[in-house]
Structure formats: C-alpha cells, structure tokens
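Hi U.,

Before I forget, here's the chain from the pilot set. I'm dumping it here mostly so it's searchable later in email.
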Amino acid sequence: MIHFIDKTSEYTVEDVAEFLAKTKQSVFGVDTETEGLDFTKDRLIMFQIGNEHAQFIIDARQVSLEPLRNILEDKKVIKIFHNAKFDYKFIKQNTNIVCENIYDTYLVELINNCGKGLKHNLHEVCKRHLNVELDKTNRLTFVDYGDKPFTQGQIIYGAEDIEYLCKIREKQLIHTKKNKLEAVVDLENEATLAFADIEYNGLNLNQDDWIELEGVNTLKAEALLINLDEEITEDSRLTKFISKYIQGDIFTPVEDLRKINVKWTSPKQVLNVFQTLIPKLQNVNSKDMYKYRNKFSIIDTYIQYKEAMKLCTSYGKSFFNNLSADNKIHTNFHQILDTGRVSSSKPNMQQIPADNKFRNCFTAPQGWSFVSADYSSQELNVIAFGSKDPVWIAALKNGEDLHSTCAELVYGEKWLTSAQDDCNYLKRKGKCNCPAHKKLRTNVKTINFGLAYGMGPNKLADTLSISLDEAKKLIKKYFTAFPAIHSFLEKLGNFGKKYGYIKTFPPYNRRRWFTTWYPKIWNNKSSMMELGSIERASKNTPIQGASADMTKLALVMMRELIKDLDLPVKLIMTVHDQIDTVCKNDFIEKWSELMKITMEHSAEVIVTNGLLKAEVTVSDCWEK
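Structure:
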C-alpha cells in the first residue's frame, strides 16, 4: 500500500516513524529522487521508505525528514538501498542525517556476479531476480522539477523502487550464502559508507598552482616537439618528411614555421615515420613501440612528448570541469572491480600522477593538516604470508631489505663479488648503493612486484629490456631460489583453471569468476590463450584482493572511530594501500597514533602473522 505524505496530508512523517518503529521488521527499503546528480547543488525532493507491504512516499520539499533520524541512524535497523552512496550523500547534505547499517543491492549484485559482465541497474536486477519489469519512464521527470505537485505516475514510480528492494535482498542472500560470501558482503556494505564520506567531504584544489604546473608541462611539450623535428632533420632516412617549402602568412611568427610535415599528435602520421625505421611496427600506442626507445632516440623523445601532452590535456585547466558547486573535487568511487580493488572517475583520482607536484595542489583547510597512512610493502607481505616462504618472512621480520635478500639468493656468487667495500647490505642487510647491486636488485624487485600482477617472461623481458630467453632463465633461477613462492602461485593458478573462479584470503574469501572458463577448456587448443589469462588472474587476484580487503576494513574502522568518538577528522581520499584524512592541527599527534593502530589491526585480520606495518605522515597538502 502506498502512503503519500506532504504538508496537507493527515498522515505525518512522525506517524511514519512511529509505524516503522512498531513494526516487527527491522529491514526497510530506502530511495530518493533528486533534481539532479550533484549533491552539492541539487535538491532531494522525494524520499521513500518502506517494504513490500507498505511504501511511504514523502515530499521532502515540504516536510522535514528529521523524525526519521533515529531509524536511519540506528545500527540495528537495516536500510536497503540500490547504489547507496548516491542517496547517502543527498540525505546527508539536505538533512544532516547520516545513514548507518545499509545493505546495497547494487554492490551485492556485483559481489555475487563479479566478472560476469551483467548489468546491475535496478531495472535489470528486478528483471533478473523477480521477473518484474520496472517502468522507468518517470525517472528523468524529477530533474529540475521545482515545486510542482508530484504526479500519480511519479509517486507510483517512487513506491516501486522500494517495494522490490526487500525481495531482491532475499534472493541475493541465497546466492551469498551458497558461495559463502557473507563476510565480504558485510565488508563492502560497511565500506560504502566510508567511500561515501570521502566523496562527500571532497578535496580542496589550489587552482593557481595547478595552472602553473600546466604551463611548465606545456613548455616541456613544446621543447620536445622541437626536438622531434630536429631528429627528423638529422636522420638521412627520414628526409621524405621534410617539406621543400615552408608555408605561412604574415601573421605567423617566424619561430612557429616548421619544415617538418609530421603532426606529432597524429598516431597515423607518427607511425609512418617510425615504420621507416622499423617496418614491422604496427602501432605507436602499443607496448611494442616501447621496446625500441633505447635503440632509437626519436622514439624515446616521442614517448616523453606523449607523456607531457597527456599531462597538459588531462591535468590542465580542463581538470577544473570536475569542480563541484562548492569548488571542491568530489570523485566517484567504483567500489568493486574484479580483484576487489577500487577505481574512481570524474575525476579518476587513482591515476593522478605519482609526482607529488600534482598531489601537492590538493590542500588541507586552514587549521587542518593531511594525516595519511599506508602499508609498508603490503603486497610483498601478502605474498610472504600466503607462500610461507621462510626467507621472505625472516627478511620482513628482521627489517632486512627484501629485494636485496632475494637478489643475493638468485645471483649467488655474482651478487657477493659485485659488492663494494662499504656495501650496506653486507654490513646491515639494508639497501646499498653499489652500482652492480643496484642493477641486480632492480631485476629481482621487478619480479617480486610482478608476482602480484601475474607477470610472465614476456612482460619481464619488456620491463627490463632483455631478451625473452634471458627473462625465462631469470624467472627459472628465481623460482629455484624460492620454491615455496613457486608452489604457492602454481597452486593458485591451477585452482582457477580447474574450477573457473579464484578466492581471496580468509576471512573474506571474495570470489572472482572467469567468464571464459568452461569444463572443456583443457581439451580445446584454441582456448589456450584464455587458459593462460585465467592462470595469471588466479595468481594475482588473491594478492591484490587481500590487499584491497584490508584497506577497506581499515576505512571502515576509521570511519567508526571518527563518528562514534566525534573526532575532528575527515576521511578525504584513498589510493590502493594509502588512506588520507584531514585532521585539526591540535589533534594530529593522537590521530596519527590511532591511525597507525587501526591500519595494523586491519592488516592482522588477513595477514595474521603481524608483520605488515603501517607508516603515518603529516603534511599541509596531499602527498604520495
């Protein structure tokens, strides 16, 4: 039954709150309708709450939602949303009510079908689970709606959105229980509140510093373009790309006239140039081109030019299009990828250049500072824990430089004879400055980190600029030195190929399903490429997934601390294994201690040996 409440209704929001409090059910569907997508400027105009039996549609323009605060903030009452972050931010912005204990049917659908490529909007989920076709014709009618009375169609539309949420949850929980995904469902539902807070809080951006960086990168790109033209002029093989005549007009400055008839922003024209040098090259945007950057200086210059141009286009003034009405950056997190890691968009904060010059443009408010924490060698600790390799565990336990320790075992006598007299590794097992050791350490470090991404010999050869045969021999020597790691990865790869899915570490046991897997794949020669892809993903997913799970758990714990203790701290960003907050200056010392404890406690839930530690830094701006 649908109940509509506005200022003229006999039934009030107080009555709704009383009815919901008296009902024996502790699970309700919740939804909102808004005048737009930007919570910083658009209004929440309709609020819906209820279950399959009774739906309460409230005109939020006319009546206050305050009587519902206790229910929405009650940690014992489950509130079902579909894409909870969106509604959470609008509710918080318009009413200052902070929803707790949510269940997000959108997230759970992603968890249950991770990797299957299904559509997850409410319309598709309803059709899939309940065989119900929702009428979405009224969805866009709320945009810029103003104060006009709601139509009957809009009210029914609002009621349907919550009518089916409880039923969808019941269907989802059957699948969740069958695949033992209850723990990861709980984690993601709790974590979405932390991600919503990060999106809500936003980041301050120093626009003057950002524009200055754009100017620096523009000058760099222009200088590299001149270098590219000069390399054409100086190479006799490339004379056909030099014009016989210079075209211009009286308005074109002499310094802007070019003899080179190549547009360096055109991949097709650049490919024509490079195929003169490397006939077999097929694409300037592929990884193949990078193999030749050390052999042909023009290719190395071009790669630098592309990187500089990307910084100009992606991180120039156009970046300001992402600023919201409050003049802050509010990114949008995509919480569940194949491995459990997150991405973000509008803008993608996960891909902000690692160079601190860009990150430093994001600043803390006056009287506040950035307090950030990240895990020390998170993925390496996960590999050590999963493989139980005695060398790795001993090195991490004793504070040794793990990459050097591994290099010593891989290279043996060559490592020992390459040491200088003052070698810090031989003296203290720390990272040293020996030139020969540096190269050997880099080779092994590449493998160590590559393990977390399923790196094979082809990728290693490309990364280290060595032959495929050399890469194969290096990997063979590596796994001879570390048989426990080899056995660990082989076990993961074989599991994924055999069963068509892979799990992350306990207690979450997140599942990644492989859509290309089917029982006869082993006997189908044409499927060997798919089988190799499944094997690589099976090796890296548990490592990356465990890392993602502990970071999400740390976010959940921090959010609870901040809210329950009313701390002068705000969650502000997270990138991979780093969590960033802003904290009032007079609370920095205490929060730094709490943050470190929280990060390490979260890690111990998964990496139970206690070796994974966190480091905390304080700054007046965002730093890596």
